[in-house]
């Protein structure tokens, strides 16, 4: 796809975009993302029913007549809203590579909640695979950081104060944010999987039910955090909405739409695969990106990188090929 240099530049500039977002409108960004998911899920529900009326009536029935089902999604909706905000805070305070490696910790929290909440039993090999995966990703990321540091050292035009500033951030805030985000990600994902698989409510209605409260939660967070900025020209809806769009150029909108689309894909994956496989797929995609970069753009991986890559691939296969046999049997009997 891109050379290592371009890859580093992309990470650098996207993290700058995120930094801008965080300082001006992180919570508002989450609000717009949820609104896009809400509308997209209503459209998909109608497409699924092949009728606007049937789609809307399905959503209405599920949300109004079966309010208990709606209440069930309030927990993951609130948790995902906080998690999404924390991810922005973490990206603002940590170098992107550090964020990526630390965020892999969610594989452990997800597995842990799968075992506790879904009573899923993992085989010993799967536990080992989780550990190996984490090591593999860590090695790949450490390698990335080392080559970045080497480049910086080579680059005499960059003065030392500039290096220190980029490295520092408020790393404790960033680290705590990413750790909490991992715990929330693991719990919300497993909770969502549970309510999705154990009820007859369709995926699209569930997404509408999730995005609706998330819009309210994120709006409340935005008002709480940026109240003076949003209402600085009074309570007129036109000035409020224009203040809420400040700093939103087309690049920010593209990012909001991509994130919203990513959220919908996550819901589909949770429905048709499971949360732990989702986490593996995300980690695996980092490696695939690098392989494409190697064949098409002359990316030259180091031995450390190759070691990390092999560990990740081995972990993905180990996890998928060696499920807990007794757990699988009991799931088959339950589903049959
Ligand atoms: O990092 P992680 O994979 O936990 O992120 C999950 C993302 O998917 C969150 O941004 C969450 O808002 C989104 N999601 C969604 N709809 C769902 C489930 C998750 O938009 N039904």
From TrEMBL:
<keyword id="KW-0762">Sugar transport</keyword>
<comment type="similarity">
    <text>Belongs to the nucleotide-sugar transporter family. SLC35A subfamily.</text>
</comment>
<protein>
    <submittedName>
        <fullName>Nstp-5</fullName>
    </submittedName>
</protein>
<keyword id="KW-0812">Transmembrane</keyword>
<keyword id="KW-0813">Transport</keyword>
<dbReference type="GO" id="GO:0072334">
    <property type="term" value="P:UDP-galactose transmembrane transport"/>
</dbReference>
<keyword id="KW-0472">Membrane</keyword>
<dbReference type="GO" id="GO:0005459">
    <property type="term" value="F:UDP-galactose transmembrane transporter activity"/>
</dbReference>
<keyword id="KW-1133">Transmembrane helix</keyword>
<dbReference type="GO" id="GO:0000139">
    <property type="term" value="C:Golgi membrane"/>
</dbReference>
């Amino acid at each position: 796809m891109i050379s290592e240099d371009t890859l580093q530049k992309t990470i650098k500039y996207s993290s700058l975009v995120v930094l801008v977002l965080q300082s001006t409108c992180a919570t508002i960004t989450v609000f717009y993302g949820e609104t896009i998911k809400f509308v997209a899920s209503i459209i998909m529900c109608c497409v699924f029913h092949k009728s606007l009326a049937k789609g809307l009536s399905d959503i209405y029935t599920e949300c109004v007549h079966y309010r208990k089902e709606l209440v069930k999604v309030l927990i993951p909706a609130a948790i995902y809203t906080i998690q999404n905000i924390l991810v922005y805070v973490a990206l603002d305070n940590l170098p992107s590579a550090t964020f990526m490696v630390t965020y892999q910790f969610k594989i452990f929290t997800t597995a842990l909640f799968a075992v506790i909440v879904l009573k899923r039993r993992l085989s010993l090999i799967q536990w080992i695979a989780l550990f190996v995966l984490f090591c593999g990703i860590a090695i790949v990321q450490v390698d990335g950081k080392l080559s970045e540091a080497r480049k910086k050292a080579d680059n005499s035009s960059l003065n030392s104060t500039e290096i220190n500033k980029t490295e520092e951030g408020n790393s404790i805030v960033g680290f705590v944010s990413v750790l909490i985000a991992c715990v929330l990600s693991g719990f919300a994902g497993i909770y969502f999987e549970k309510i999705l698989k154990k009820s007859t409510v369709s995926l699209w209605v569930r997404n509408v039910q999730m995005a609706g409260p998330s819009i309210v939660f994120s709006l409340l967070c935005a008002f709480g955090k940026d109240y003076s900025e949003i209402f600085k020209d009074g309570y007129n809806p036109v000035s409020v909405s224009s203040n809420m769009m400040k700093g939103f150029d087309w690049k920010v909108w593209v990012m909001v739409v991509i994130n919203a689309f990513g959220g919908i894909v996550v819901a589909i994956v949770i429905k048709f695969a499971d949360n732990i496989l989702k986490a593996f797929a995300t980690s695996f995609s980092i490696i695939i990106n690098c392989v494409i970069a190697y064949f098409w753009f002359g990316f030259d991986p180091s031995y450390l990188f190759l070691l990390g890559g092999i560990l990740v691939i081995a972990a993905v296969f180990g996890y998928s090929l060696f499920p807990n046999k007794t757990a699988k049997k009991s799931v088959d009997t339950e589903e049959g």
